[in-house]
Design brief:
With 242 residues, the chain is of the alpha/beta class. The chain has 7 helices and 8 strands; from the N terminus they run E-H-E-E-H-H-E-H-H-H-E-E-E-E-H.
């Protein structure tokens, strides 16, 4: 039986950053970790349909800073910032610490695996056939404006599909998806759709190409090449002078 690892945890510290950024001694580590889990659960349960991509938690002495990446920041902030203020007060009561919340907008939700998984799960809960939903998103990934960054995608749904008595898994794929390459930027998302037949799991993998890193590598190679050319020209000129 194949042993699988979480695509994000597999690449933490290489291509993916830590979502919890703090340091604690042995006694405080467990309490901080439990607080992080409770904070993330509270936010995701409260804003299930807001397209929350990821939640970053940064701790400094006496203060917890939370950064929420979402496709619908206006819903979380609320009119005049009332909703986000209520959320901040709830988290402060739970943790007994000062909390600062920052909401960041996800400009292109179709390029975020977690948001795509939530959108697919929402469609399945509305009794839309899962094959139609998955094929629609796969065709969306094949469009030129998305293909420039997302080079490959895979969607897998598992459970009692179409009300079948025996649970099964089906997947849909397009492009390339190097899951075993650590340096590959693989975005992963998971969500559950609750239907009258039971829970259906939705997993999404997206392979993104990092253009900035490639450009920096090209520029570094160009600088090295220019330096070597300069040395060669210098040696030739010295030879002429001699």
């Amino acid at each position: 039986m194949g042993q699988k690892i979480h695509p994000y945890g597999f690449r933490v510290g290489i291509t993916k950053p830590w979502l919890s950024k703090w340091f604690a001694e042995k006694r405080a580590y467990v309490s901080y970790l439990i607080e992080d889990v409770k904070i993330r659960k509270m936010i995701r349960d409260k804003y299930k349909k807001c397209g929350v991509s990821k939640i970053e938690i940064i701790r400094i002495p006496g203060v917890i800073r939370i950064e929420i990446h979402t496709a619908r920041p206006g819903v979380i902030i609320g009119k005049g910032g009332q909703d986000i203020e209520f959320l901040r007060e709830d988290i402060e009561r739970m943790t007994n610490k000062k909390v600062n919340i920052n909401v960041q907008s996800v400009k292109e939700p179709i390029k975020d695996a977690q948001i795509v998984a939530e959108m697919i799960a929402a469609q399945i809960e509305k009794k839309v056939p899962f094959r139609r939903v998955c094929k629609r998103f796969i065709s969306r990934f094949e469009e030129p404006d998305v293909r420039d960054e997302v080079k490959g995608a895979k969607i897998m749904v598992s459970g009692r599909l179409d009300g079948a008595e025996i649970a099964r898994s089906e997947w849909f794929r397009t492009g390339k998806l190097p899951l075993q390459t650590i340096n590959a930027d693989i975005d992963y998302g998971f969500c559950e759709a609750k239907t009258k037949y039971g829970v259906i799991g939705v997993k999404v993998w997206l392979y993104k190409e990092k253009k900035e890193e490639e450009e920096s590598v090209i520029s570094e190679e160009g600088e090295v090449q220019e330096a070597t050319e300069g040395k060669e020209e210098g040696s030739i000129s010295q030879g002429k002078q001699g």
